Amino acid sequence: MKFLMKKAKGFMGRSHVTISLVLLLVLILLPFETTQIIFGQLKTNYLLFIVSMTVLAGGALLPDLDNDSSTAGHTLGPLGSMMTVFMKSTSSVVWNIYHFKKDSKPNTQHRYLWHAPLLWLGLLLLFYLRLPTGNVTIFTNLSNAIKLGQFGYFVQTNALLILFIILAFMAVLVGSNMIVFRISQFFDIPYAIKYIFPGLILIYIFTTTYTNLRIVAVCLATGCVLHCIEDGFCDTGLPSLIFPIPQFWRGKVWGRMKLLPWTVTTGGMINKVIDVVASVLFVILLIVVFKH
User: How far apart are CA 191 and CA 176, in angstroms?
Assistant: First the structure.
């Protein structure tokens, strides 16, 4: 009985990944011009599809780096710890600057600033609208910059691209680790794949065209957005669900909100049911995408 009643405050990492991958497949299938422009190429470019799915899986776990114990933090090691310190401190600063009298000071910054869907949606739009496109690669541009002694200039003029590279590096490590772990539960795979897979994806990111890179970047940010929205269905709600828009009717900025009157309690049997349903949907939608 305790096993059945076991609770967690939010979706488990594997659930976030599986649900987010399912939602990406839904976006690929939606017959709208906007979604087809952004995600349509994933139906025909298999290598881009694999990379984008992996990066989205990692992106679906990155917001939880604002927590001391997270799947992403465990996978990234010291880098994850540094990101956790950064996210917790910046979230604390923003809370202290921007809150109303009725806001109670949180014991932890988990699910505050870095769980704001609008924040990651802004990054998604920034990636889509401002990242360069064309047939040039990062490797080519970076090599030319180094040869000409203009590496510093390259960094200064490509700040958004550098931000994407940093986030992509983390997302690749986290996403590939989660995907390999999930596959290993059903099939025996060589242990070396755990290291070869992320390495190959990083090589792809540096050698693919800027046009493809923009799609990967959008998928990364989409994973972050979906993570935050998914947490809006959990029992504890999300204090930053509409941040930075204040909740004037409650006299708060950070009041916990839920997307539905009924919510999901994960952990134990419930968590396994969610995983099984999402996994089945993933397989079905994957077949539909490539058959279509």
Answer: 13
